[in-house]
Amino acid sequence: MSQFSFPILENDELLPCLEEMEVSMDANQLSKPTYETVRPVMEQIVIMLTGVTREELTQPVFTAMDAFEYPELHDESIPCNNFFRQLSKLMMASGVKDFSWRDIFKPEPPRLRRHLSAIVNFAKFREEKALAFQELQAQLDALVESAKQTEEEYARNTAEMRRLQAARAEQAQAVARVEAEEAELTAANTQLNKTAAALQNEVRALKASTNAAADAASAAKLELA
């Protein structure tokens, strides 16, 4: 497995990067490091990059305290262990595999520069990933919003389609009623036409009978004369 690598920065490159991270350290402290200067700087970096608060960093872990017969003798050592554990995790994530207590209590300029270079590189890497995540999150939010709008539009279209289907069904029922009434009227008219035709035939027959009777009466009058 290849080891994570990072560039070792020169002091004139490293200090501006630390300043950009709002880490307080000057060239003299970097070239002549001591426990008193390195410990606060590393604490500040741990708090900044891990999200652990200063209170959490210095607060004893009570389950660990219970393991000691005289826990009051370890009030300072256990918080110190908490700090070193968090710092070691950060160093490991930054690519430093050989970080030790000596780098805090007896810091050496080359190793300190190496460790701070690793932290700067990690911070930049994390910032790049954070920006990429923000961009992806923005894209995701846009897609979610678009999907929401699509769902709302689909719901509106579905409601409108159902309204039109109901209106069409109602119209179909009305058309069916009109067609039924029209069929009834057509049938009635047909029957009336048949009745009228029959009456006309009867009228013609009566007229013929009347004419025949009139002719017979006229003939009878002539004979009597």
UniProtKB/TrEMBL annotation:
Pfam families: Nuf2 (PF03800). The keyword Coiled coil applies. It comes from the Eukaryota. Its main location: nucleus. It is found in: Chromosome, Centromere, Kinetochore; Nucleus. Residues 133-209 form a coiled coil. The keyword Protein transport does not apply. Signal peptide: none annotated. One of its GO terms (biological process) is kinetochore organization. One of its GO terms (cellular component) is Ndc80 complex. One of its GO terms (molecular function) is protein-containing complex binding. Keywords: Cell cycle, Cell division, Centromere, Chromosome, Coiled coil, Kinetochore, Mitosis, Nucleus. Residues 3-140 form the Kinetochore protein Nuf2 N-terminal domain. Belongs to the NUF2 family. PANTHER family: KINETOCHORE PROTEIN NUF2, MEMBRALIN/KINETOCHORE PROTEIN NUF2. This is Kinetochore protein Nuf2 N-terminal domain-containing protein.
